[in-house]
Design goal:
Length: 572
Amino acid sequence: MSSSSYFSTILHSITKTPHKLKKRMLITWTPDQELNQVRQRSGADMKKKLDWYDLVALGIGGMLGAGVFVTTGHVAHTIAGPSVFVSYIIAGVSALLSSFCYTEFSVEVPVAGGAFSYLRVTFGEFVGYFGGANILMEYVLSNAAVARSFTEYLSCTFGSNDPNSWRIEVNGLPKGYSSLDFTAVALVLILTLCLCHSTKESSVLNLVMTVFHLVFFGFIIVAGFCNGSSTNLVRPKGLAPFGVRGILNGAATVYFSYIGYDSVSTLAEEIKNPSKNLPIGITGSVIVVSVLYCLMSLALSSMMPYNEIMETASFSSAFQKTVGWKWASNVVGAGASLGIVASLLVAMLGQARYLCVIGRARLVPVWLAKVHPFTGTPLNATIFLGICTASIALFTDLEIVLEMISIGTLVVFYLVANALIYRRYVKLSSGSPFPTILFLLILSLTSIGFSLSWKFNGDCLWGLIIFGLASVIVTAIFHRFVPCYHRPSEWSVPLMPWPAASSIFLNVFLMNSLNKKAFQRFGIWSFVVTLFYVLYGVHSTYHAEEVGLEVDLHDGSSLTAIVQTKLEVQVG
C-alpha cells in the first residue's frame, strides 16, 4: 500500500468517527458473553488454583502496605487527635460498602476485568473503558510510589536515617525527577518475573509474607497497649480535640490505606468456586484490616499524648520516647518493608488482569490480552506494566506520584456503586431507566451539596442539614416506589439500595477532601484517555465487532472472519 493510500484510509476512518462513536459508546455485553466469548480471546484459560484463604491473604496483603505508617501519625497529630481510631472505623465502613458492590458483581461476572467489566456490562463500552483506564492509572502510579517507599523503609531497617541514602542524585534533571531509585526498579522487576511464572506460587509467597506481617502488626499492638496509658487518650484536650470535623477529615485521609481490596475481584477467573470464595475473600480481608488499623492507631494514641506524636516515623519514635526502644526503628522498617512487598505483589497481580481484559475488548492492542498456555498468566500485560511501573519508580519523586493516586480510585468506586443500583432496578429488556437515572443524579447532587457545605467550615450548617436529609429522603422514596428487578441468586448485597447509596455518598464526600491539583491532573488524564478512545479504541472495537474481524489468538498469524451477533444497546 502506498503512503498516500495509507493516509487516505486513515483520513476516511477518522471521518467515520461520529458514526462509530454512536454505534459503540453505549453498547454493552451480557455477563454470559464476558464469561465465554470475550474470555476466549486470550487463547488459553487462566488456571483455577486459588482458594478462599488465598483471597483473604491477598486482600490483606494488598491493603497492609505503608499507608498506615505514613498516615496515622499525621492524622493523630494535626487532624483528628486520639480519635484517629474512629477515623479508621468510618473509613473502614466506607471501604466495606464499596467492597459489597464489588463482591456482588464479581460473583455474577467472575472475569478478570474487575470494575472495567462491571461497568461495561452495565453502562456500556466507554464508561467501562474510562473506569478501567482510571483504575489502571492508579495501580501503576501507586505501585511506583510504594516501590520507592520500600527503599526508604529498607534503608531504615539497616540503620540509615536519610531516606535518600540508597538513591543516586543526578545533576541536570528537573527537581522531583533527579533522584534515581534502582532498588525500587529491582523490586518491581523481580516481582514481575514472579507474577509471570505462576499466580498460585505468587499467592503462596504473599501468604507467607502476610503471616509474618500480621505477627509484626500484633507485636506493635500488644507492645503499644502494654506500654501505654488510657490517660493519654484524653490528654491534653480530650478524645476529640478537633471535633467531629477533625474525625471526618481524618477518615478522608486514612481511607487510602484501604485501597487494594479490589485486586481480589480481578482474580475471579483463577478462583475455585467463586460464588463462595469471593465474598469471603473480599469482605473478610476488609474487616480484618479495619480491625488491625483501629487497634494500631489506638495503641499509638495510648503511648503518648497526640500533640507529642511525630508526624513521620510515628510508631518507631513512640517506642523510643516511651520505653527507650531505639531498635524499634529497625523493626518497624523491616516490618513495613515486608508489608510493602506483599502490597506491591497483589497490586501488580491486579493491574495485569485489568489490562488483559481491556485488551480482550480491543480497546488497547490485542496482544496485551494473551494468556500464556503454560503458566496460565497474562504474560504480555504483566511484562508491559512491570516495565512502566519500574520506569516511573526510577525517576519520579514520591510526592509527585502520590498527588495522582487517590481521585481515580474514588471515581471508579463511585461508578461501580451507581452501576450496581442501575443493574438491580432497571429492567433491561423493557423497563424505562428514567426513575433510576433520576435517583442517581439527585443522590449525586445532594452528596456534592453536602460535601461543599462541609467545606465551608461550619458556616453552612443549614446546607449540611438540607442536603443530608435530602439524600436520606430521596433514597427512602426510591426504595419504596421503584421495584428491584434483578437480584442474583448466589450472592447479593443486602438491604439494597441503602449500602450502594451510602457508598456513593461517602465516595463523593471523600473526593471533596482532595486538593485542587488532584482535580486538575484528573481532568488532564481524563482528556488523554478520552482522546485515545476516540483516535484508537472506538476504531479498533468497531473493526473487531461491527465489521466482524477477530484475531485468533490460538494462531497469532491468522485473521479469522467471524459472523457475530449484534450486541444489544441498553439505552432505555
